Amino acid sequence: AQSVAQPEDQVNVAEGNPLTVKCTYSVSGNPYLFWYVQYPNRGLQFLLKYITGDNLVKGSYGFEAEFNKSQTSFHLKKPSALVSDSALYFCAVRDNMRFGAGTRLTVKP
Amino acid sequence: NAGVTQTPKFQVLKTGQSMTLQCAQDMNHEYMSWYRQDPGMGLRLIHYSVGAGITDQGEVPNGYNVSRSTTEDFPLRLLSAAPSQTSVYFCASSYRGRGQGLAEQYFGPGTRLTVT
Q1: Which residue from A50, A91, A92, B33 could staple onto A34, CB 3.0 to 4.6 Å apart?
Q2: For each of chain A's 109 residues, which pLDDT tens digit applies?
Q3: For residue B42, what is the nearest residue in chain A, using CA coordinates?
Q4: A11: distance to nearest CA of chain B, Å?
């Protein structure tokens, strides 16, 4: 079965520092992977996706994600965190649209 | 475009009552889906549809029914509400990317349901 896992429930970073939110996948065939963000009391918003091609994918709001086939990972990154990035982040796999359990990112001033 | 709309925003039901959560999209997307979100469990797929007249079950379909008579609308019916169905429900839609299967999903604002 296709699935993704987010090993961290919570990530805390200081404003201005780089951030990483981790995701690993278990997919047969070509993995098509997504990242979404959820702000409080809102629906999910699409950030970026990996279909094929470059292993570094750029998305909205300055986020990027690095696809690593050997480590079966698709970590979300941002070079310099903002307080406004504080939210719940989900990775998902395309074929059955299964989501990870989510990682709560808190950026402290 | 309004995108994906859901009604109602909040609902309180008593055990055994039935209700329908409405979902509509104006983007002409073929694919629509319903998820429930519970703390620590991410989003779980309830039912989905790949086009008008076609529906299928997701991970947690028990206690829910869906139908898709038009491209725009995808209502979710709770047949006999139970406290275990207390959750936040999200509807989403997507187009099929060319040669890439499903593209990214667009989500509605959610319905917060409490069953007492």
Answers
A1: A92
A2: 788 999 999 999 999 999 999 999 998 888 889 999 999 888 899 999 998 788 999 999 999 999 999 999 999 999 999 999 999 999 998 866 789 999 999 999 9
A3: A101
A4: 14
Residues of B in contact with A35 (CB under 8 A): none
Query: CA nearest B6: which of B114, B113, B85, B108?
Result: B108
Which residues, other chains included, contact B30 with Cβ-Cβ below 8 Å and sequence gap of 6+? B50, B51, B71, B94, B95, B96
Task: Tally Cβ neighbours within 10 Å of residue A79.
Answer: 11
- One-letter amino acid at B40 equals G
Tokens matching residue B7: 């009604």
Instruction: Burial-class residue A84 by CB neighbours within 10 Å (0-12, 13-18, 19+).
Output: exposed
Residue B4: Cβ-neighbour burial (10 angstroms; 0-12, 13-18, 19+): buried
